[in-house]
From TrEMBL:
Record keyword Nucleotide-binding present: yes
Protein name: ABC transporter ATP-binding protein
Similarity remark: Belongs to the ABC transporter superfamily.
InterPro entries: AAA+_ATPase (IPR003593), ABC_transporter-like_ATP-bd (IPR003439), P-loop_NTPase (IPR027417)
Residue span, ABC transporter domain: 1-222
PANTHER family membership: ABC TRANSPORTER, ATP-BINDING PROTEIN
Signal sequence bounds: none
Pfam family membership, one: ABC_tran
Keywords of this entry: ATP-binding, Nucleotide-binding, Transport
Gene3D superfamilies: P-loop containing nucleotide triphosphate hydrolases
A molecular-function term among this protein's GO annotations: ATP binding
Amino acid sequence: MGKRYGRSWALRDCSLELPAGRIAALVGPNGAGKSTLLHLAVGLLQPDTGWARVFGRDPRHDRAALADLGFVAQDTPLYPDFTATELITMGGRLNRRGWDAAIARDRLGRLGIPSDKPVGRLSGGQRAQVALALALAKRPRLLLLDEPVAALDPLARHEFMQALMGAVGEYGTTVLLSSHLLADLERVCDHLVLLHTSRVQLAGPVEELLAGHRRLIGPRLPDGAAVPGVASVIRASHTERQSTLLVRTDGPVDESHWAVHEITLEDLVLAHLGTHSPAEVAA
Ligand SMILES: Nc1ncnc2c1ncn2[C@@H]1O[C@H](COP(=O)(O)OP(=O)(O)OP(=O)(O)O)[C@@H](O)[C@H]1O
């Protein structure tokens, strides 16, 4: 599918399927199209080409599809004059099927978020926690989260990621969450969708993607030379004597010639975006 704003494509030739019951990471630079993709998936935007389906239903035109969906937008919009308690009650009225108020109440209680204060007077992080608690209380089959942890402190981020894994384990929820915090994603996500300049640059199970990429360090590679076991070179840097390659492999690489290293999710993403990870720069 694709989505255009005026003449510019915000998302183009985007074809992807999410595995059910998994946590998928949606990553990409600012303006890559992540929010656009999430808004298309939840039916808030209409694709200009192609179509979006959620469990086989059109989220834009089939209201029944919405019962399966939970969405927390990037700016966590909530009615500012309502307290968390009131929003939880409202959530229950609007979502008669499957709503579990105790999930939200317990979460907010545990996190020490005041539930009797208008949410407009909470901090940004506290407001995000309220929005996330409401989304979890809905117990949706598909939970879409646009940078849900951006406003949270590191401890709260860690706790939230654990809660997401809990929801997936307990209810079989499918999650798609966008974030720039690759280290957080690496711990919990089993699927990756990488957007770059409005297109899907890379998508697949994280384990498979990491298993299919390696960093090779060895003697300077002559220009244009092929390396057995390497399907493609994603990124290369050279000194006079040494070459460092981040590659996609398609067989064993000669370890007597190359030092072969596993890579992290951050290395993978940054290589596909054409830059170096901080760890590589430090090395
Ligand atoms: N309402 C809009 N009108 C016009 N252009 C838009 C609109 N919303 C988004 N765009 C453009 O579409 C492209 C994709 O934007 P989108 O918000 O989906 O990116 P993103 O990956 O979520 O970015 P970020 O990481 O900064 O949140 C950008 O070029 C953006 O300028």
